[in-house]
Design brief:
Blueprint lengths: L8 H4 L10 H4 L3 E6 L6 H12 L3 H14 L1 E7 L1 H13 L4 E5 L2
Antiparallel strand pairs: 1-2, 1-3
Length: 103
């Protein structure tokens, strides 16, 4: 009995056309927020922002001061999955943090 050739994934794959957006491309970016709390020292918050995000001392200090004076600072913006990871890391250092979609 002769079998017809089967289609393999490589036989049926079609290259995406230029300008085709994936679901992730269409998803809104998310922002990670650090919130003010009465417990952590400002130097500790600066250290953790530097450690997690790799910011310079100056950038981390600016963000910490924004948290201190305004009650919150947007410390990172990007894809949701990475934002969730950053919030989890901030929580592991006992910092108050949250994430929200960018409007």
């Amino acid at each position: 009995m002769a079998m017809s050739p089967s289609n393999t994934a490589s036989d049926t794959e079609i290259a995406p056309s230029v300008g085709t957006a994936t679901r992730d491309d269409l998803a809104p970016p998310w922002q990670v927020l650090v919130l003010n709390d009465p417990v952590n020292l400002m130097s500790f918050v600066t250290l953790i922002i530097r450690r997690i995000f790799g910011y310079s001392e100056q950038k981390a200090t600016e963000l910490m001061l924004q948290v201190h004076h305004k009650g919150r600072a947007i410390v990172w913006t990007g894809e949701r999955e990475k934002a969730e990871l950053y919030v989890q890391q901030l929580h592991s250092y006992q910092l108050l943090a949250s994430m929200e979609p960018v409007d």
